[in-house]
Design a protein that fits this description.
CATH class: Alpha Beta
InterPro entries: RAYT_transposase, Transposase_17, Transposase_17_sf
Structural class: alpha+beta
Organism: Chthoniobacter flavus Ellin428
Strand content: 15-25%
CATH superfamily: Transposase IS200-like
GO molecular function, one term: transposase activity
CATH topology: Alpha-Beta Plaits
Distance between the termini: 25 Å
Protein name: Transposase IS200-like domain-containing protein
Length: 170
């Protein structure tokens, strides 16, 4: 994760955003969204990832996550999902999108011909309940603001929230 933003509070939950290069619309099929969800489930089971909330939009992903070695888990998750998503895009014959991911591949990515994710996830440590509530509201209202659903309780959007209040870890 080459970024000036780092996870400096390893015991805190963090709000993250993973964005596709050039904001390209990768997550427009259920299969691509399911790959993200399945990989999160894997990390929860095998890497002790705690998932407090998440949402998948057409070109980015927000989540509130915690866990041991969170930076390493996110790095591995992005690496795995990039490969799996590129494979899925090939199966879906979305060549125009693969062409764009190839064109926008960073010069230092010498071993890859495509780049799916922008570098970094801009992690923000959740330091209190007020901040957690603000980030939960943001995660849940993001699809509404983008016009993907009429209101946050309705729609076929990939969205999840688990309990937080009462689990103070600050």
């Amino acid at each position: 994760m080459r970024s000036r933003y780092r996870i400096n509070e390893p015991d805190a939950a963090h709000f993250i955003t993973a964005t596709v290069v050039e904001w390209l619309p990768v997550f427009t099929t259920a299969a691509c969204c399911d790959l993200l969800v399945q990989s999160l489930a894997y990390c929860r089971t095998h890497k002790q990832l705690q998932i407090h909330a998440w949402v998948i939009l057409d070109n980015h992903f927000h989540a509130i996550l915690a866990g041991p070695k969170l930076a390493h888990t996110i790095r591995d998750w992005k690496r795995f999902t990039a490969g799996a998503l590129l494979k899925q895009l090939r199966e879906e014959k979305r060549q125009w999108l693969l062409n764009q991911l190839n064109y926008h591949c960073a010069a230092h990515k010498a071993t890859s011909e495509h780049q799916l994710w922008q570098e970094g996830v801009h992690p923000q440590a959740i330091i209190n309940d007020d901040m957690m509530l603000q980030k939960l509201e943001y995660v849940h209202n993001n699809p509404v603001k983008r016009g993907m659903v009429l209101r946050r309780s309705i729609g076929n959007t990939h969205l999840h929230m688990s309990g937080w209040m009462g689990r103070r870890r600050f």
